[in-house]
Amino acid sequence: MNHPIDVIVPVYRGLQDVIDCLDSIKASHNQQAYELILIDDCSPEPEVSALLRERASLGEYTLLVNEENLGFVATVNRGMQLHPERDVLLLNSDTLVANDWLDRMTKAAYAVDKVGTVTPFSNNATICSYPDFCQDNALESNTPLELLDTLFSKSNADKAVDVPSGVGFCMYIRRACLEDLGYFDVETFGKGYGEENDFCQRAIKAGWKNRFALDTFVQHTGNVSFGDEHNELKHTALGKLLKRHPRYDVDVQRHIAEDPAKSARIRTWLAALRFGSQPITIHVSHNRGGGTVRFIEELSRETSNQCYSLMLMPSLKKPGHLSLTRVKSGVDGLACEESEYTLYFEPHADQELLREVLSQLPLAGFHFHHMIGLPNWVMSLPKKLNKPWIVTLHDYYYMHESISLTDDQGHYFAAKPEHLNSAWLSSFAPLLNDAKICLAPSKACLALYSEAFPEATIVTQYHEAGRFLDHAAFPVSALPKTANAPLKVVIIGALSKIKGADLLENTARLCAKQGFNVEFELIGYGYRELQSKPKTALTVSGRYKEHELLAMLQQRRDSGQADLVWFTALWPETYSYTLSAAIEAGLPVVAPNIGAFAERLHGRENSWIVPWDSSADEMATLFDTLSKQSSELPAYAHDQTPAKQYTHYRDSYLSLLGTSASKVSIDPLEEGALQTWLEQTLPLTKADLSLKQKLRRKALYGLFKVRQAPLLRSVAKRVPLSLQRRIRDKLMR
Description:
Layout: E1 5-11, H1 15-27, E2 34-40, H2 46-57, E3 62-65, H3 71-80, E4 88-91, E5 95-96, H4 101-109, E6 115-121, H5 145-155, E7 160-162, E8 170-173, H6 175-181, H7 186-189, H8 195-205, E9 209-217, E10 219-220, H9 230-244, H10 248-258, H11 262-275, E11 280-284, H12 290-302, E12 308-314, E13 322-326, E14 342-345, H13 351-359, E15 363-368, H14 381-384, E16 389-392, H15 422-433, E17 438-440, H16 443-452, E18 458-460, E19 487-495, H17 501-513, E20 518-526, E21 538-540, H18 549-558, E22 564-566, H19 577-584, E23 589-592, H20 597-600, E24 607-610, H21 616-627, H22 649-657, H23 673-681, H24 691-708, H25 713-718, H26 721-732
Parallel strand pairs: 1-2, 1-4, 2-3, 6-9, 11-12, 11-15, 15-16, 16-17, 17-18, 19-20, 19-22, 20-21, 22-23, 23-24
Antiparallel strand pairs: 4-8, 5-10, 6-8, 7-9, 12-13, 13-14
Helix pairs in contact: 5-11, 11-23, 17-21
GO molecular function: glycosyltransferase activity
Keywords: Glycosyltransferase, Transferase
Protein name: N-glycosyltransferase
């Protein structure tokens, strides 16, 4: 470019954003000449206007001032008319740029004929977003802006694709395109939203291209100027846009379906793994979701200041394979999401390949959560890579294949030695005994594991930073005293046999039969269809979204639809996230005297600990007594006081592994290193399913539906639990 480019930054509010934006522009280094033009759109914040005047007086930029607020569209139009011979780049005041960003944007604008606009990648840019497509994202912990932009530039050098529209947070516009089309349409789009989409659609109709520069990344906060009104503005603007360009939405949906920038995102993510600024922890687990995945995700967020987290697990997308994926839960947190950011390995043929890939990463160590569904050789990875590891004991799989210490009939056997297989224990002894430390989510869990693995170093470390042990922070409601009103008992979760589905059904049946003034609601579902009203006093409300559970309990409490929560578990649960929800909701609790319940409820008011093997008749009698507010409520002695929290993950997670937050420095510019890494790992991101794998997935879904079908409920009950488990495990491989 012979002429300078006008970089136009309209400013309305957000002092710190403006300061950060200006500082980032000043720190960037470009060969392309440009003039920085800031326009004060009559900011309502005096400190913003003062800053703009002060820095303009130092010669940092040209300052224009609107005497009244014109809005984004009219403001940038004013800026674009300042120098009619120059290309322009529109840049929001809540963006951050790095390196030679403008050089790459300019190069993309002239790389092919008839380029009208150019937009870079960003964390908040709809179809140009990274890492998650069409979402607002936070920057990932292992890639600060300067490094991330460098990785984009090296992984996708000179690459660009066509898009139906640029995104106005950072958009290069060639002057020839402006001369052809004119400026943004102020009359139609007012103060903002939709104007750049309209311009880009007009550009396409006039033969111009909108290009997406895949080698540039600009950070974007988003919606600083408009604040909370942006959703309404977007909705109004979309209506105007579709009226003028009826195919716009179709074009955008087609682009989303084709997703031509996907490979660029994957390449950059792979580069960030290899050359990121943080050490990496590999979380080893099953693929069955639930509390284990929730813990891993929460732990990864809590420790993101120390390390980047990956998860190694049996693949759901590509059955028969292992997946190495970033830690992010899927819908409702029920399973770890295998997004495009996943590497797949065949468990037998790719052992050496997985080890080779891991050896090239800046590993801090391994965190084992579960081995079910994984080949035993995975346990040898840390030693072969000379890396430390720790273990969290989420259930009892390392002691017994049932994970719950229950027999084939689903009966808890209290970890009696005659039920434990010495060969099974020996297979996991090296993993636990040689770990830096094993973390038990409750004192009860620690006691059982310490007996089975006396040589292992095991400590108590409650999930959720142990905050739900402080009962003073979560006041408990009293049972209601409304005359003649039924006692409303809530049960939460997906109830299997060992989680008390049969006990619940039988108790509800007895309460209905004996006319007790008690009603039960299962927020969730059973492993089979449970009998409900009128045959029992039970209502089953079905699946719920985990993130909505607390609000559901609070709403039921406030509306008189929930008086207490009953935990029906027939095995020693190691923690129980649903108990946390009940505690936070301030509801009374009835729970069994095994597992984590007794210690977590120690000293809590309006909470009753009952024998875990109580019969349905005994439970029905208890609830009848509670419903009558009798002064002779049964009391069950327990002395399970909670343990002291061992450590705080947020501050000292890596110290558990015996490593620090530093990593071996690897130069991402090292000749050939990046391309060699990408050539090795890109093929491992393919997740296409074979016909056999598709049939296996369909069979697993069919098995679930059979167990839920009312007509087949009695048949499902006759199939031994051990056989059901074996069939399920076979299909999930």
